[in-house]
Design a protein that fits this description.
With 343 residues, the protein is of the alpha+beta class. The protein is built from 12 helices and 5 strands. A 5-stranded mixed beta sheet has the order 2-3-1-4-5, with helices on both faces. It is elongated, with a radius of gyration of 33 Å.
Length: 343
């Protein structure tokens, strides 16, 4: 079982991207449908055809996105159509030369789809094209005419809109990164022991299926006379011992293995794809490293552990294997502690 904080973070980054592209496509479809309807009675057949193509494109894009979830290609197609539409509106002037007013929709769309760096590059190129269309000889790049003051203000406001979109996207990305970090910290704290950094019982439950599928061996280790350490040296030293023992255990195993703080001073280690003989070698390595452990400025603190080993395979239920390892660990205790026993 995996633990997620969906009540705080309802969207993964991928799902959020799909949602945004779907939203853009719906808005585009509604906008183009409305413009097509309003422009239907006009004599501008070229604009009507361009808008009708856009409606058809938006419907096809919506079905494509639902079927494939390929939001990247869908977003590219939306961006390309919008750029072509707005350039067409600037070139022709649209209805009563109001076409350039639609340009201000582009900065937030491109910034949301492409992010800070690529979005700003594309917006800069688009603004450069608009400047060229406005201020080069009109007979080449425009089919209509605008006043100089109108063109200047369009470029100025479009540039400000691009800058504001950049700042908004920057703030959004910073917030998303902070939320992602908080989410990761919450998930980590939920499955990890605060003191040692090893998995806790909840973390172990998350790994149950992995352990069952991998098979291998279990080590159950208990620090000898831990209560005496706490009583003699204090709980601060006891906590230090726990952290150092956990550190030595993690150094002795692989990334594919699972290390758990099972109880107060008990540790459970799952060694994936490891037979009993190799598990015994690893257990002895752990035991000897802990026996040789020296705490800084605390040479009189001597720490040992007792370890029990059991097999985990398809013939032995996991929690039976834990019980067998526990029995083997208590056998090590009865035999004088600071030793490894098998079930």
């Amino acid at each position: 079982m995996l633990y997620h904080f969906n009540f705080l973070f309802p969207f993964s980054k991928n799902n959020l991207s799909i949602y945004l592209v779907e939203l853009f496509n719906v808005i585009l479809l509604i906008m183009l449908s409305l413009l097509t309807y309003l422009n239907f009675s006009s004599n501008d057949m070229l604009l009507s055809a361009f808008l009708l193509i856009g409606v058809t494109f938006s419907l096809g894009n919506a079905f494509y996105l639902v079927i494939t979830k390929n939001y990247k290609l869908s977003a590219h197609l939306i961006s390309i159509y919008l750029v072509l539409l707005f350039l067409f509106l600037v070139y022709t002037g649209g209805v009563e030369n109001t076409g350039p007013l639609w340009l201000f929709l582009l900065p937030p769309v491109l910034m949301s789809i492409y992010g800070l760096r690529k979005g700003m590059i594309l917006l800069s190129l688009f603004i450069l094209i608009i400047v060229m269309m406005f201020f080069l000889p009109e007979t080449y790049l425009l089919a209509t005419s605008y006043t100089f003051e109108f063109k200047l203000r369009i470029v100025l406001v479009l540039s400000i809109s691009a800058l504001l979109s950049f700042l908004h996207e920057l703030a959004r990305q910073v917030l998303m990164e902070k939320m992602e970090k908080i989410k990761n910290n919450l998930e980590y704290a939920h499955v990890r022991d605060e003191l040692t950094g090893l998995y806790n019982r909840r973390g172990f439950n998350n790994k149950v299926n992995y352990i069952k599928e991998s098979e291998g061996t279990l080590l159950l280790a208990d620090i000898d006379y831990f209560k005496r350490i706490n009583d003699t040296y204090g709980h601060n030293i006891g906590d230090l011992v726990l952290k150092e023992v956990a550190h030595l255990i993690e150094k002795s195993v692989r990334h594919s293995d699972v290390t758990v703080r099972w109880g107060g001073e008990e540790f459970l280690i799952f060694l994936a794809q490891t037979d009993m003989d190799n598990a015994y070698i690893i257990a002895e390595k752990i035991r000897k490293s802990i026996e040789a452990m020296q705490l800084e400025n605390m040479d009189d603190v001597k720490v040992t552990i007792s370890i029990g080993i059991s097999i985990v395979d398809e013939n032995i239920a996991l929690y039976d294997a834990i019980k067998y390892a526990d029995n083997a660990m208590y056998l090590s205790k009865k035999m004088g502690r600071n030793r490894t026993s098998t079930c």
